[in-house]
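Progress against Task 2.4 (sequence-to-structure conversion) is shown through the following example record, which the project officer requested during the mid-term review.
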Amino acid sequence: MLQLESLEIAYMLSESRGLWLFAMEWWFIGTGMITAAYLNNRCKLMSAGWTVVSLLIAVLSVIGFAGEIVRFRSWMVGVEIEGAAIVLVGLILMPLWLVWAATHLKNLNGVEFVSIPAPGEDVGAEPVRDPEI
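Structure tokens generated for the chain above:
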């Protein structure tokens, strides 16, 4: 009996490792989209609509992450949740986001970019120079 329990525990561990591996894909997409939306909000390189699409992809990625986790317990519910997220993100929003970004960045050819200031960095005043130097 103890051998069967150890086999069951080993099976559950291997399944959970795969679960987290595939679920982290959604987590990383969501994190990347939140970062892109935040940086665009700071430097205003793209339009506000692009930021909204980025945040929508991030929210759907979190839902896809949850669907992947739920699939471990309830297969059909998890498949429905994740399937909806895959269709919306993978077939509609992500291609739209990529084409929108590529089109806008192509139009910026030759435009000089300024660096994004770090939080707390004073970018408004010139540094004071010592006249004796």
